[in-house]
Specification:
Layout: H1 2-9, E1 16-18, E2 21-28, E3 31-38, H2 46-55, E4 64-69, E5 77-80, H3 89-98, E6 104-109, H4 119-124, H5 129-152, H6 154-161
Parallel strand pairs: 4-6
Antiparallel strand pairs: 1-2, 2-3, 5-6
């Protein structure tokens, strides 16, 4: 949803497909970007992204990976410069494909199920009415975080967005 928001806001259409990724090229405030969405299963997303990055000569340290995180409360953002997979199979796949975790991550909190649903059902399920109302703020805030990382640097993004809870109205 966040990649789609960035795509719309900066007129970068996902009009190309290569290596099981939909992608588009464009600019975000004069920064040239390749915006990509792997079409493989999440836990197999690393190889398609690695192949696309290799094709375009993009190093992992130049990437910003956006992903959900059940260990963060719903709506909270956290930017990390690098690190482990934290149990996230998509990040594990990326780390395996690139030989390490040297990429920036924008973690979007989805929290844990209050109903005791398993992780897959919770992450892929529908948002509650209360959470759905906050979704627009979360998506816009995450988009702003990506723009900040790209245009002002990871540290600036961390200073502005880490710990920010976008599910709460100000």
């Amino acid at each position: 949803m966040i990649a789609d928001k960035i795509s719309r806001d900066f007129n970068i259409s996902f009009d190309k497909t290569k290596f099981d990724c939909d992608f588009g090229r464009g600019n975000i405030e004069n920064v040239e970007v390749l915006l990509a969405k792997p079409m493989a299963y999440m836990n197999r997303s690393g190889p398609p992204i690695q192949k696309l990055a290799h094709f375009f000569r993009i190093q992992s340290k130049e990437m910003v990976v956006i992903h959900d995180d059940i260990d963060l409360v719903f709506g909270r953002l956290k930017i990390k410069k690098k690190g482990g997979h934290g149990g996230h199979n998509g990040i594990r796949s990326l780390m395996d494909a690139f030989g390490g975790g040297d990429f920036v991550r924008l973690r979007i909190g989805v929290g844990r199920s209050e109903l005791g649903d398993n992780v897959t059902d919770h992450v892929l399920g529908r948002f509650s009415v209360q959470n759905a109302e906050a979704l627009t703020r979360i998506i816009s805030g995450a988009r702003d975080a990506v723009v900040t990382i790209l245009c002002k640097g990871t540290q600036a993004g961390m200073n502005l967005f880490n710990g920010k809870d976008l599910a709460i109205t100000a």
